[in-house]
Amino acid sequence: MNVFRLAGDMTHLLSVVVLLLKIHTIKSCAGISLKTQELYAVVFAARYLDLFVHFVSLYNTVMKLVFLASSFSIVWYMKRHKIVRRTYDKDHDTFRHYVLVLPCLLLALLINEKFTFREVMWAFSIYLEAVAIFPQLVLLQRTRNIDNLTGQYVFFLGAYRVLYILNWIYRYFTEPHFVHWISWVAGIVQTLLYADFFYYYIMSWKNNVKLELPA
Amino acid sequence: AAPDNVKDEL
């Protein structure tokens, strides 16, 4: 476990925990895309199928449980909680996310490490994670206002992706046959999706102005 | 080290 990967997992954990705490404390999910949260719940469910059959380490198992629990509770809060659900901006969160799910499923059937159910679901979760942020970015463009917690959420997710790329570079040079093309290509695509958000986030932070995304 | 295609990352 190298420092980039640990830092990446921690920022990823931070992004979901900050989001869950925000929703739990202020009982509001304004600015958050339910579609993105649902996609993330599917990503974790599809990726962690081997949770009980394949033990990697205590850390790995605990983190998987935390990610599953937090992503599903965020979806539960946004859909079922009597107060929070009223703050959900469903008129703007209209990205048809099944448009993302189907191509990822087809791609996973075509490109995977082994044509078994678990490997196809794993590849599906990798592809879906790459595009899961899309509805959230669309919502941010639509509503054009980014409250700082939503901004922090996307920022932490972007940071986790950048750290994971550093982790892959480190592992590629230190572990002889560490090659995972599927994760690498999907991970780079995902990180690029954040690139423009990062640019506007850092610019607004530098000029100390409210974060505005271009129309 | 774990065999190659073991998914040890989250």
UniProtKB/TrEMBL annotation, chain A:
The record's principal subcellular location, in a coarse class, is endoplasmic reticulum
What the entry lists under Pfam families is as follows:
ER_lumen_recept
Annotated Gene Ontology cellular component terms: endoplasmic reticulum membrane
Identify the keywords attached in UniProt to this record, alphabetized.
Answer: Endoplasmic reticulum, ER-Golgi transport, Membrane, Protein transport, Receptor, Transmembrane, Transmembrane helix, Transport
Q: Where are the transmembrane segments?
A: 55-77, 98-115, 121-140, 152-170, 182-202
- GO process annotations (BP): protein retention in ER lumen; protein transport; vesicle-mediated transport
- UniProt subcellular location: Endoplasmic reticulum membrane
Presence of keyword Endoplasmic reticulum: yes
A Gene Ontology molecular function term for this protein is: ER retention sequence binding
The record gives the membrane topology as:
Multi-pass membrane protein
Q: Does the keyword Cell membrane apply?
A: no
Family named by the database record? Belongs to the ERD2 family.
Q: What is this protein called?
A: ER lumen protein-retaining receptor
To which species is this protein native? Answer: Miscanthus lutarioriparius
Taxon lineage: Eukaryota, Viridiplantae, Streptophyta, Embryophyta, Tracheophyta
